[in-house]
Write a structure and sequence with these properties.
The complex is a heterodimer.
Chain A lengths: L1 H22 L2 H6 L2 H25 L12 H7 L6 H29 L2 H14 L1 H11 L2 H16 L17 E2 L6 H7 L7 E4 L3 E4 H14 L9 H16 L5 H7 L4 H17 L4 E2 L21
Antiparallel strand pairs in A: 1-4, 2-3
Helix pairs in contact in A: 4-13, 7-8, 7-9, 9-10
Chain B lengths: L1 H25 L3 H17 L10 H15 L2 H9 L8 H20 L9 E10 L3 E9 L4 E11 L2 E9 L2 E2 H12 L5 H28 L1
Helix pairs in contact in B: 2-3, 4-5, 4-6, 5-7
Classes of the chains: A mainly alpha, B alpha+beta.
Chain lengths: 307, 217
């Protein structure tokens, strides 16, 4: 009996130790952190060289962007827009709504509400929407990120006054994580479901069929606002308030995109698709606040005296 | 005879390696080049001669433009935004496009440069592929957040020049290419000519609009 017991104890100890070693290997790994990069560089160099030979037979390779290995992202960005006339009409409507209603409201709100409370409110909503991100992380198999999200949620809810404060800051951990505000649209993408036709959602803006379905699930199933029998108009106004509050941090981005564009509709569509493609193919990144490299600009430098 | 050939071969090889080594050491690395370019822009922005003096903004912009033209290659950038139809542009049309597109980019982005408030730029990683393409990962660090900016450079005449900028994963070249591709119709020669004309008209119109806006300010 006792022998069996000690054996199972040893097994347990072994399992726990293995788990600990597997879970926190990043300190060990970080010492040799340059190696994978180097290997990747050399590898891509070789692949590139082979490709180059292939291409030299085809002639001009200047228009080929394959060399950077973002073919996957390019595929996701390649657009399909069968509803272009509807989308363009909706784009004009949204544009009108933005400049006529949303922007003035946001500007008024910013005038009344200083930056700090707006940050708290943003934190609160971000914290409350943790189920959306955690579910998507789990469905994509990004378990460590899900764990980080969960611990952040717990910490901020308990210590951060129900999410108003952001005591954790960026989801930090000792190991590299996937980041990029996971949602159902990205989950579908990771599962291999393509974007489908581009689709302008009234008022909310650019989307695709896949992302719109994802957004629907995020909003109506995973959003805790719908869980406790809160009347729909409260949920709706809270959502709208969240959007306005969020927009107050991003005011001017749409304007600058539009300002430089020859065809604002196409520019917004492409920007949305590229942004989503990058989110979808986010690689594991070390979420420790990376220190600035030693090559850095000096912000206070002055020009050499003009001769 | 055989010996002479061997010696000759040896000499040729030595010369080749030597010239290769010299060439590769004289080229400034992509990151260094980008660093000095960006630092140059920041230097001008911080120059007390211009900083905060409204009358001098025009002069400052001209200076910034000059520095940017030095490490950006607008010909390569224009070529890539048009894509393959570029080969069917006459050299005159190419030059016209480059000047218009450069103007458009300058008018768009120089207006925003005034909002610079001593953010730092960290140059994180340099990757060189095929000996003539390079990617430099940078981050703009402000007190509250960091924005990833990726530059892509090409070795042209043994100098590394920027041909694309990616901010938050959105590539400048790709964004404009998708717009121009919607305008340029390559299905037939006639259609191509008319759509090209249309493209130039819209570009000119846009530049004019941006200039008017700048003047109003």
């Amino acid at each position: 009996m006792t022998i069996k017991n000690s054996a199972s104890n040893a097994l347990l100890a072994f399992l726990v130790l293995t788990f600990i070693l597997l879970t926190f290997p990043s300190q060990v790994r970080s010492a040799e952190k340059n190696d994978p990069v180097l290997v990747a560089q050399v590898g891509s160099g070789i692949i590139g060289a082979v490709k180059d030979q292939d291409k030299s037979s085809q002639g001009n390779d200047d228009f080929n962007d394959d060399i950077w290995g973002d073919t996957l992202e390019a595929q996701d960005t390649s657009e399909s827009d069968p509803w272009e006339s509807y989308n363009r009409a909706m784009f004009s409507f949204n544009d009108f709504m933005y400049f006529g209603v949303t922007k003035p409201v946001t500007q008024g709100y910013m005038y009344v509400m200083p930056l700090r409370p707006r940050t708290w409110i943003n934190n609160f909503f971000q914290n409350m929407l943790a189920p959306v991100r955690v579910t998507s992380c789990l469905l994509q198999g990004k378990f460590f990120t899900a764990g980080a999200e969960t611990s952040k949620f717990v910490a901020n809810t308990i210590v951060g006054l129900g999410g108003l404060g952001d005591v954790v800051g960026e989801r930090q951990s000792t190991m590299p994580l996937y980041l990029g505000n996971e949602d159902m649209g990205q989950t579908f993408g990771v599962w291999g479901i393509p974007n489908g036709p581009y689709f302008m959602i009234p008022v909310l803006g650019p989307s695709t069929v896949r992302d719109a379905v994802g957004l629907g699930i995020d909003t109506f199933a995973l959003n805790p606002f719908w869980w406790f029998g809160i009347p729909w108009y409260y949920s709706l106004s809270a959502g709208a308030y969240n959007q306005i509050n969020k927009l107050s941090f991003h005011l001017g981005e749409y304007e600058s995109l539009k300002e430089g564009a020859i065809d604002p509709y196409a520019a917004l569509k492409d920007a949305y698709l590229q942004y989503r493609a990058r989110q979808l193919h986010d690689t594991k990144r070390n979420r420790r606040p990376a220190p600035a490299s030693n090559v850095i600009t000096n912000p206070n430098a002055q020009a050499q005296p003009v001769q | 005879m055989k010996r002479i050939t061997t010696i000759f071969l040896f000499l040729v090889l030595t010369c080749l390696t030597a010239s290769y080594c010299v060439a590769s050491t004289t080229t400034v690395s992509p990151m260094e080049r980008l660093h000095s370019g960006v630092q140059g822009v920041i230097d001008v922005l911080n120059n007390p001669e211009y900083k905060g003096i409204p009358d001098k903004q025009g002069e400052m912009n001209a200076k910034v433009r000059e520095i940017i033209k030095d490490f950006f290659n607008f010909r390569e950038l224009s070529k890539r935004t048009i894509g393959r139809p570029w080969l069917n542009f006459s050299s005159k049309e190419q030059d016209r496009f480059i000047s218009l597109f450069t103007q458009l980019l300058e008018e768009t982005y120089l207006g925003k440069i005034g909002s610079y408030s001593s953010e730092k730029v960290s140059f994180d990683k340099e990757t060189i592929i095929q000996d003539k393409y390079a990617q430099v990962d940078t981050r703009i660090l402000s007190s509250s957040k960091s924005i990833p900016v990726v530059y892509r450079l090409k070795l042209i005449n043994s100098v590394w020049d920027v041909y694309d900028v990616k901010v938050e994963g959105i590539s400048l070249v790709n964004n404009y290419r998708s717009q121009f591709a919607g305008i340029l119709d390559t299905s037939s020669n006639d259609k191509f000519e008319t759509s090209k004309k249309n493209l130039f008209e819209r570009l000119e119109q846009k530049c004019q609009d941006l200039k008017n806006k700048q003047n109003k300010k």
